[in-house]
């Protein structure tokens, strides 16, 4: 009976061994797959969900003092570069411009007068030279006759005094001519320093008059409007903000232990909660922050105080986004995102080594004011030169 029952336990033990071996093989395979996945995928990328969309926030402020009479753009509205956003009362600027215009015209006419005065002194010098030649000739004729007693000594003395007087008057005329020429020589009327000074004052007044219209320096969307009709504003006072949503980026805050293999130029994928996983933004690393977020905080931690607890710090890594994708799928400043950086290519630099080759941002909106002011000043000068001006 016992002999017949002996094989059963042996078969049960074999099955258990095979099951255990199968389970062990599954775990070993899973471990091998995880190892390969780590070596080929996870170790070659860095991921963080501490990332936020960033962008330029262009503060719009008045350049001259004034009272708001019109607000032409509101929050959420799109504006174009050069578009008028706020208008200020132009009364004071118009009065100042009229004064500057009359001062420029007066300066041109005064310089013309000075040039004519210099010409008068030149004519006076020529007349004095003629008088001196006549007086010296009279003296030369009378001196030989004095020895022959043909003329009285007093007459010769008078002739000598007349020559001396003519010589002094000539010297005075020459000095007066030199003083007059010192104000006008070397330039034409338009280039005279007095005209240039008045011209600069006119340009300043003209530009101030134009700046009663507060312009948008860039294309973008209006936010944080605070300008109100009737409000008295000062230069530099913020009135609203324009945000160019076509030029956004992502600041991904990686832990310091994740930065070892991150390089400039590496590709990145950005996913936002706004679009879920349906839209993946393609970007690349353009730079790493020069310090941790805590180092630039308003109240940075004092780690040397003694009450110190080690905290893993984070460093912002800037990810540039594709402008075409931003146009197709607009983002907003401050949105959260998840960033995955592909670190397989580690040939790039850790920190930037060259300065920027192009401006980070620029506008030519305000340059137009100066060109227009120059044309207006030229028109005022031409109108006061006169037909015979030199």
The Rg value, from CA coordinates, equals 44 Å
Number of helices: 7
Distance between the termini: 142 Å
General form: elongated
Strands, count: 14
SS content category: alpha+beta
User: In which range does the helix fraction lie?
Assistant: 40-55%
Proportion of residues in β-strands: 15-25%
Widest sheet, order of strands: 1-10-13-12-11-14
Let me know the largest β-sheet.
6 strands, antiparallel, barrel
Topology order in helix (H) and strand (E) letters: HHEEEEEHHHEEEEEEEEHEH
pLDDT averaged residue by residue:
86
* Stretches with pLDDT under 50, minimum 5 residues: none
Task: Please give a quick description of this structure.
With 390 residues, this protein is an alpha+beta fold. It has helices at residues 2-5, 7-40, 91-147, 153-184, 193-210, 323-328, 367-385; strands at residues 45-55, 58-61, 66-71, 78-79, 84-88, 213-215, 220-223, 232-233, 238-243, 248-255, 267-272, 281-288, 314-321, 336-342.
Please, could you describe this protein's structure?
Helix 3 packs antiparallel against helix 5. Helix content is 44%, strand content 21%. The chain is elongated. It has helices at 2-5, 7-40, 91-147, 153-184, 193-210, 323-328, 367-385; strands at residues 45-55, 58-61, 66-71, 78-79, 84-88, 213-215, 220-223, 232-233, 238-243, 248-255, 267-272, 281-288, 314-321, 336-342. Strands 1-10-13-12-11-14 form a six-stranded antiparallel beta barrel. Strands 2-9-7-4 form a four-stranded antiparallel sheet, with no helix packed on it. It starts with a helix and ends in a 5-residue tail after the last helix. A hairpin with an 8-residue loop joins strand 11 (267-272) and strand 12.
């Amino acid at each position: 009976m016992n002999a017949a029952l002996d094989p059963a336990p042996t078969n049960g033990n074999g099955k258990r061994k095979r099951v255990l071996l199968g389970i062990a093989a599954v775990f070993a395979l899973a471990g091998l797959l995880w190892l390969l996945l780590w070596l080929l995928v996870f170790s070659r990328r860095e991921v963080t969900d501490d990332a936020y969309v960033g962008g330029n926030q262009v503060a719009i402020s008045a350049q001259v003092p004034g009272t708001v009479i019109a607000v032409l753009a509101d929050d959420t509205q799109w504006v174009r570069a050069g578009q008028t956003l706020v208008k200020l009362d132009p009364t004071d600027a118009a009065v100042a411009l009229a004064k500057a215009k009359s001062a420029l015209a007066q300066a041109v006419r005064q310089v013309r007068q000075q040039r004519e005065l210099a010409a008068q002194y030149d004519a006076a010098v020529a007349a004095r030279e003629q008088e001196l030649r006549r007086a010296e000739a009279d003296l030369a004729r009378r001196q030989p006759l004095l020895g022959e007693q043909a003329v009285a000594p007093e007459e010769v003395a008078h002739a000598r005094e007349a020559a001396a007087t003519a010589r002094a008057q000539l010297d005075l005329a020459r000095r007066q001519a030199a003083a007059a020429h010192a104000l006008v020589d070397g330039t034409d009327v338009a280039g005279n320093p007095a005209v240039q000074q008045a011209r600069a004052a006119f340009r300043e007044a003209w530009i101030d008059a134009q700046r009663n219209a507060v312009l948008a320096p860039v294309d973008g969307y209006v936010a944080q409007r605070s300008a109100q009709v009737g409000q008295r504003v000062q230069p530099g006072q913020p009135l609203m903000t324009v945000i160019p949503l076509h030029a956004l980026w992502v600041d991904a805050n990686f832990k310091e232990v994740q930065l070892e293999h991150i390089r400039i130029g590496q590709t990145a994928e950005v996913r936002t909660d706004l679009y879920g996983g349906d839209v993946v933004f393609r970007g690349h690393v353009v730079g790493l922050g020069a310090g941790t977020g805590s180092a630039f905080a308003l109240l940075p931690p004092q780690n040397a105080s003694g009450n110190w607890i080690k905290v893993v710090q984070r460093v912002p890594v800037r990810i540039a986004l594709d402008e075409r994708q931003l146009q197709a799928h607009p983002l907003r400043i401050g949105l959260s995102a998840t960033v995955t950086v592909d670190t397989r290519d580690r040939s790039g630099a850790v920190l930037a080594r060259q300065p920027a080759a192009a401006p980070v941002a620029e506008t030519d909106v305000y340059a137009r004011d100066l060109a227009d002011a120059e044309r207006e000043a030229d028109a005022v000068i031409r109108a006061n030169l006169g037909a015979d001006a030199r």
